[in-house]
Amino acid sequence: MILVAYAALALLLQTGVRGAPFTASPAHKRFVHLTDIHYDPLYVSGADTRTQCHRRTEDSQGTDKAAHYGTRGSNCDSPFPLVSEVFAAIRNDIQKDSPVDVVFLTGDSSRHDRDSLVEKEASEVYSQNAEVVYHIDKTFDLTKTTVIPSIGNWDVSPHNMLPEPKYASDAFANLYSVWRPLLESGLSESEVNSTKQTFLSGGYFDRVIGQVNGEITVRAISLNTLYFFAENTAVDDCEITENTGAVVQLSWLEEKLTHARQQNEKVVIIGHVPPIDHNDNPLYKPNCLRLFLQTIGDHAEVVLSQFYGHINKDVIYLLTRQGDESIDPRKPSTYALNAVTPKTVIDLQKQNRTILSVSQTSSSILPVHNTGVKAGVISIRPHDTHIMRESQWFIDIVRANDKFASSPGQPSVSPITFKEACKTDDDYKMQDLKPRSYQEWLKRLHDEAKLDLTLDDVELKAGKGKKPRSQILKKYGYCMDALEKQPHPPPDNHLSLSPAVVRAVLISATVVFVGLMVAFYFFVQYLEKDGDVLERQRLFFRPVESNRGRDNFTPGPSSRPRVNFRTFLSPTSG
């Protein structure tokens, strides 16, 4: 029995190790992607959502009122309680098992300018960014965690409008001043000068985020995507014959990628505005989009991934080669970029193109859907640096607001907690995030979508209702909106425990059981050696004989009869 118990304990320990959260090692870099915080200090809980949650009105209904932690699906921005509690939850939940090494902060930290009665001032851009920097500094140890920011279209004033660099020097200088703790922490004087030179002249920069034996292996590049952004009418489209901010930045990007190839480095690219949205609508100006895709495609083997914000959705985009390989700037790009959605997987797989590189947008802190944060791990090895896994940490904003409303007098118990979901290894069945793995993942999505269409047609003819089947595709669809649309089971009336707690309880119970068995064994040994008749009778609930053969023996403190314990276990004894 003891051997069985030990075997059970070994199995539980094995299961616990396999299911434990990933802990980064020196050969790994754990990253977090934060985007579109849109902090609004003017947000008033209980205000009318039609006022952007700035003012209460007499005719507002219950459903039109601003909730404490933000109002999902409204035009309101993020209140202070949400911003504060999100960073606290990052400390308590995401960093619980291991610290974060790198943070990608992809812009739009300040509020929108949608309230005609409270016009946004230019100074708010910097004060609200400063508030976010304050929370980042409280959450992460900036001597150990590298933070890479990028400029969002609401991080300039007026929004979207960023003129050519010679007219934007004040905007760059003001942002640099606010972001200085993030941009300069941990850098040498020469590295600070390099960062300052490119940021102040164009709003972009690069920084080393991974080394092996002193040699650079991974570099992050922060782009100023506003110079490519179609809605930035303050600058023209990219023309390679002109020395514009966009063209200079693209030339700098090509130099960095070429250098990375020559030095066997890998690159992570971040920015605010992605090249296209989740419906494949271009967000860059036509020439800028073509030149950008050409630059990335020509150096795809050194780009680990690209991280963007802006669209408030968690979407994966695939870069593939198409048509003629000519790089004639007068011809269309030889590369195509497409969003992966449940509606596009069949057509994407039909094209049978080889995936060269991947980019992605992340869910936002702003609760357009649920609040979401992306996290992942980069494996840093010479000649095999790659992203191992990613997942999404989300907050169910509606439930958090309901919990706060039900217990407003308990501010010490925060209902804001992150839950991990959308795991590329467990949920998407991907062994890593190399282009080959995405190729296999896309095929699985395609096969599930085709099966759904086939079975739906059969069931429709048979008069049967549709049943859920496509597991990976369904999970990806839910993850795009930070699980906002995922059906929730009814709340349990009994105590629910996490798998980690259940494992701990089972392991503890097994250890206690083994300990009791060992204690019982030694107790039996004691009875065989020193136990008296009454002690044995109480143990076995039956009369026993003393080993001295005396029928009328009364045990005393100085006389303890002995007996062979094994005779009482014999079927013929007694």
How would you characterize the overall build of this protein?
This protein has helices at residues 2-19, 80-94, 122-139, 169-184, 189-202, 245-262, 286-298, 345-350, 397-406, 435-462, 471-480, 499-530, 533-540, and strands spanning 28-34, 102-105, 146-149, 205-212, 215-222, 266-270, 303-308, 315-321, 335-340, 355-361, 371-379, 386-395, 419-421. The chain contains 13 helices and 13 strands. It folds into 2 domains: 21-317 and 331-447, Metallo-dependent phosphatases (Purple Acid Phosphatase, chain A, domain 2); 448-480, no CATH class. It has 574 residues and is an alpha/beta fold. Strands 4-5-6-7-10-8-9 form a 7-stranded mixed sheet, sandwiched between helices. A 6-stranded mixed sheet has the order 3-2-1-11-12-13. 36% of the residues lie in helices and 15% in strands. The radius of gyration is 32 Å and the shape is globular.
